[in-house]
Amino acid sequence: MGPPLQITRRRLLGALAALALLGPRLAPAREDGPATRPIPSSGERLPLVGLGSWITFNVGDDRAARDACAEVMANFFRAGGQLIDSSPMYGSAQEVIGYGLAKLGHPARLFSADKVWIADGAAGRRQMETSRQRWGIPRFDLLQVHNLLAWPAHLPTLFAMKAAGQLRYVGITTSHGHRHDEMARIMASQPLDFVQLTYNLVDREVEQRLLPLARERGIAVIVNRPFQRGALLSKLGRQPLPAWAGEIDCTSWAQFALKFVISHPDVTCAISATSRVDHVLENLGTATGALPDQAMRSRMAALAARL
Amino acid sequence: MAEWWLYGPRDLLLFAPRTYYRLFELYNLELWPLQLLALALGTTVLVLWRRGGARAGRAIAAILLLCWLWVAWGFHWQRYASINLAAGYFALAFVAQALLLLWLGVLRGRLAPAPATRLQQRAGLILVLFALLGFPLLGPLLGRSWTQAEVFGMAPDPTALATLGVLLLAGGRPAWGLWPLPVAWCLVSGTTLWAMEAPDFALAPLAALLAVGLAAGGAARRSR
Ligand SMILES: NC(=O)c1ccc[n+]([C@@H]2O[C@H](COP(=O)([O-])OP(=O)(O)OC[C@H]3O[C@@H](n4cnc5c(N)ncnc54)[C@H](OP(=O)(O)O)[C@@H]3O)[C@@H](O)[C@H]2O)c1
């Protein structure tokens, strides 16, 4: 390790370089809150880190577990978080989110993101209405077609809901790198506000086509599986965090992985799921410190590729 | 999801292991001491088998039928469905097995204890005993709490395994119609446990396949 002064200078330069790379799009939401990026179609800003709910919030009727999820949500909002993502596919997760929101007195900062996931296009509206009731909110901010399922039927419904003021944003999702060709075609032809896709230190295919396309078309990007549902963290965790991770304010592999994702200038928000208060704070914390610049990002990816 | 085959069982697992085992914990605590009644019923099955005869076979079928119905309602429908979107179908399958037990076991008397190969008898007895006494111990042995024990007649796995044991004990002319659903359940449950990375994931599937093998072997020998 070099002398402290040098590190500070390097860190400062790194931060400046990151700012130059990211340009005016990146800004802190408020004093010491998480940094934000704008949704291109509206200019509304979202914190770089959101909260997923797959598995972690599917706790059924277990009262104690529901309270624990509500505690994660409470800490998420307190630390400046906004976007929570769910789906009718996630078992009881929607109800558990609804339980948490009611318990927390419906925090005004919530940005609600859910999905429509049903093969029968005509049943879409009913499913979305059921989801809305489970969340216990007047309307969703964002509804996405889950895994592109029956998208030709659902997208017109979603655009109509948006036009009628029953919804603010429309999106589509995929994950695990599946069906990127089809996603690109939809992005090129439909007036989408959001796409959601998998991107992390090792699943980087989207850098080639989908992320540039999102920038070109003015579409916000939500990133799912930033930790490969934990598998990536297990792999990374077999070795010690390199000392240079400190230059970008990383104290853990989770922060390392998440910083890589949110430092991509075309990513609007990365959603990680967690059942733990310390983890949700750690994850949101990645959006407050320094972010890696391009050179550092390459170094991070190279390290991950060697594993 | 449009293409399920793009995803492996681990990608499709909807819940954390912690949540799955909590399900049994809350179930057990809420219904205690129903477990004792379930174990008494399981023991009755063994006593009836020792006694032998057509009536005993019908009574055994009636007990198993009750257990399958209860697991369909009390476990799959009322509890498992809160975390697994497929549990409604599991409940239907368990009701179907109860109806099969009614038809083949109670009405047609196909579960009457009958002479079987030595191996088949031993394996059947071991399977029933394991389902009644061994299975609830598995969790604690693997470091889970006692309160999460999976009990015959209440939890699906030991119920399916005990049923397979009884089928082996029913002798050399297997009622094949009663086999597919318990075996299928053992495979489904094993896949779920594998996706949860549970160390005991192979137990129920292996036991089920072994039972099928022994029954098929016994039947083949008889027909020779
Ligand atoms: N097709 C789609 O639309 C689609 C597909 C996949 C995912 N998604 C969305 O994206 C969200 C995120 O993806 P994901 O849930 O698959 O995976 P993920 O966020 O990559 O990983 C979640 C796992 O990481 C662990 N974790 C979280 N923060 C951590 C930290 N700071 N340190 C150590 N471990 C940590 C969690 O365990 P702990 O509970 O122990 O923290 C959890 O097991 C989902 O919840 C869902 O909302 C959408």
From TrEMBL, chain A:
Signal peptide: 1-29
CDD domains in the cross-refs: AKR_PA4992-like
Keywords: Signal
Domain NADP-dependent oxidoreductase: 49-296
Entries under SUPFAM superfamilies matching the protein: NAD(P)-linked oxidoreductase
Listed Pfam families: Aldo_ket_red
InterPro entries assigned: AKR2_Oxidoreductase (IPR053135), NAD(P)_OxRdtase_dom_sf (IPR036812), NADP_OxRdtase_dom (IPR023210)
Protein's UniProt name: Aldo/keto reductase
The organism of origin for this protein: Pseudomonas linyingensis
Lineage, uppermost ranks: Bacteria, Pseudomonadati, Pseudomonadota, Gammaproteobacteria, Pseudomonadales
From TrEMBL, chain B:
Claim: Hydrolase is one of the keywords in the record: no
Annotated signal sequence range: none
Pfam families for this protein: DUF6064 (PF19540)
InterPro entries in the record: DUF6064
Transmembrane segment boundaries: 31-49, 56-75, 87-107, 119-139, 202-220
Keyword set, alphabetical order: Membrane, Transmembrane, Transmembrane helix
Statement: the UniProt record of this protein carries the keyword Ribosomal protein: no
Protein name, as recorded: MFS transporter permease
Native species: Pseudomonas linyingensis
